[in-house]
Amino acid sequence: MATKPLRILHCAMFSANKYGANYYSGHTRLSNGFIRNGHFVYNFSYRDVAREEAPLGIKELGMKKMNKRFVETAERIAADVVLLGHAEFIEAETLIEIKKRLPNCKIAMWWVDWWHNLVKYDAVMRRRMPLLDALFMTSDPDFVRENYAPTRDVEKFFFMPNSCDPSMDTGNAYDVAKPLHDILFIGRSFGSRNDLLTHIKQNMGDLNVGLYGQGRENFVTGHRYMQLVSNSRFGISFNRDNAMPLYTSNRMVHLAANGCLVLTPETPRMRELFSQDEVVYFSTAHDCEEKARYYLAHLDEAAVIAKAGQKRAHKDYEAQMITSEMLRKLLA
After folding, report:
1. Per-domain boundaries in the chain
2. CB 209 within 8 A of CB 183
3. Which long-range contacts (CB under 8 A, 24 or more apart) does 323-326 make?
4. Which DSSP string do the residues of 269-330 spell out, in sequence order?
């Protein structure tokens, strides 16, 4: 475990060119957690750098230059830890060069997307895995190892829950007298989500339901997003894949941390993250509707569950605690 402040080079999609639209993102939360633990963090926004370094807007040349700049940055700050947040355009040769220049530097990666997207970048990920000192993922490591062979080349592979941040997640939705919505759903429309969204539209029109993120016309970011999760009674968290053990969208923690009553399908091992006393689990779209209507008629009961979910989020999934655990496992 670190006994002195570390210099951490955090490479992720910080989206400087979006000017605050994604300020609540998971990578910002993690950087905040490391800083609160007393470490120095240099945020390297790899896609922004590639775009800036691209001569005549030629993307491929920008990627090559970005990788060079990444090595330069690691050396200039004498990084103790290089942390890759997805960072799918960082080449294996780049990590090898960093190890040559900084032999004691640890290299780790976190991945909060569903594991299938590792395959999307299979060429670079296969070469990267043996170079990692640790891999952190918001899915069950045993499940991912079984389904994506290259991860078996990483000796240290850990589950990492999505994080909340007390400087961002300040809402108490259960106390809002006039909520923006009784029920909130934010997310793209595809797969089994379509069935749920169709059911909501066809059967729950009498309720104050807010549906966002299905298209450009109702896409929300920035503080508007945080206002919605902080000022809606209930929030539905529905993953693109509800069969992966431990996997959940970061939206589930956002909702819980801001005091929304969370309604969600029960994916495998999900009760290890939130018990039935901290969120409301449903099995089908009809079951979701029934439970939503019940708790709208019993708001006192809903508030008890929402408060318990909020307490769990801030106690166990606060970014400072999660990043402390990441470093403990990486450096052990």
Report:
1. 7-163+319-331, 173-316
2. yes
3. 323/30, 323/33, 323/34, 323/37, 324/33, 324/37, 326/108, 326/110, 326/134, 326/136, 326/158, 326/160
4. TGGGTS-TTTSEEESSHHHHHHHHHHHHH-HHHHHHHHHHHHHHHHHHSBHHHHHHHHHHHH
- pLDDT tens per residue across span 171-214: 999 999 999 999 999 998 877 789 999 999 999 999 999 999 99
Nearest CA to 325 out of 34, 111, 87 is that of 34
The fold adopted by the segment(s) 173-316 is Rossmann fold (3.40.50)
Residue 214, phi then psi, degrees to nearest 5:
-80, -15
Question: Is-above-0.85 flag for pTM?
Answer: yes
Domain boundaries 7-163+319-331, CATH class: alpha beta
Under the banding of pLDDT at 50, 70 and 90, the label for residue 311 is: very high
Tokens 């896409």 — which residue?
219
Q: What is the pLDDT of residues 24-54, one digit of tens each?
A: 999 999 999 999 999 999 999 999 999 999 9
Q: Do domains 7-163+319-331 and 173-316 have the same CATH topology?
A: yes
Environment class of residue 315 by beta-carbon count within 10 Å: exposed (0-12), middle (13-18) or buried (19+)? Answer: exposed
Counting beta carbons within 10 angstroms of the beta carbon of residue 194, is it exposed (0 to 12), middle (13 to 18) or buried (19 or more)?
Answer: exposed
Provide the 3-class DSSP secondary structure of residue 100.
Answer: helix
Residue type, 227: Q
In whole angstroms, give the CA distance from residue 38 to residue 315. 19
Say what the pLDDT of residue 91 is. Answer: 97
d(CA 150, CA 174): 44
